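Forwarding the complex inputs:
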Amino acid sequence: MTEFIKGLRGFRRGAWEMVASILIALGVFMLMQPFALSLYSASFIVTLVGTVMFIIVSHFPE
Amino acid sequence: MLDSSADRAVGETSPVVSKRSQGLSDRAIAWLFVAPSIFLLLAVNIFPLIWTVRLSFTNFRVNRPNAEVQFVGLKNYISVLTDGDIWQTMQATAHFLIWTIVLQVLIGFALAYLINKKFRGNDLWTTVIVLPMMLSPAVVGNFWTFLYQPQIGLFNYAVGYLTGTDPSAFSMIGDVSLAPWAIVIVDTWMWTPFVMLICLAGLRSIPSSIYEAAECDRASKWRQFWTITIPMVLPFLMLAVLFRGIENFKMFDLVVQLTGGGPGSITELTSINLKREAFEKWRTGYASAYAVILFVTVFGLASIYVKALNKVKQR
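Prediction (whole assembly, two chains):
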């Protein structure tokens, strides 16, 4: 966990890619879940932020 | 003799041509070869994508080319993301996607595992199993509608024979609760061979020496399966899931032929719904926003999936 926080502070690729991946997965789940329309409405912005973040952080150093 | 011919050829080359070919650097020649592909990629993929994003912020309707096109900001995105019907199609797509992938991976891997064992008629069975994959989705959709017929359908007859129920008592494509499963069954029937072939490639790439070493260490078959077979086939399996996931997310032809999105809109997947919005209701701007949302979703998923695949390969 401390390694993960260190990675985030040091702008390391692994930690930030993990955050972006979680956001994308969360966005896709929100898009397709059958529970709440409000989650569906917010899904795109979550996926978009995750995807753009993924593209940017994949250029960070290892 | 050869030398003199070569010298003569060099001597006969016009100085202009010779100078021109000398003038092109390796980099320029490389660009010359790559340029047509890049141009095609830009024209066929990138430009339409940028144009779709642009249209998604307008009220453009392609059936009214002379009407004034107005910038509407995020209105189309808000409409798509608050539409209960589209939410319903997303759920139908999720049901289709999850079940087809689970069934295709399980059955495909099991078939590959069996086919990988040497037995009489091995090649013949491989060919027979692969046949459905070679058929056109439109043809498959059409003949499965006959198989699903309550009165004359072979599927209903087989289910009735095995379970003792009346074959005409249920309709796979007419019943709201059965129709989503009807499309899952057909897609699984058609595309399991594809997953099987990829798994077979994975299984055949495992060196037999690893199993021999495991035998020497007295590892049981069960342990060999979980510690050798599964980890070594995993990258192939993940690749199959990626291919099938992307393909099924945009599934159109098979389902249109089979159910047309019905009964009601219970099997209306996102691509079918998108086509209706774009080319039946002619809401081009709205449909563009819808398409952008789907594109970002697939792109995001593919990104994390490729990352996971690379991690598994590095192990």
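Residues 37-57 of chain A form the longest helix (21 residues).
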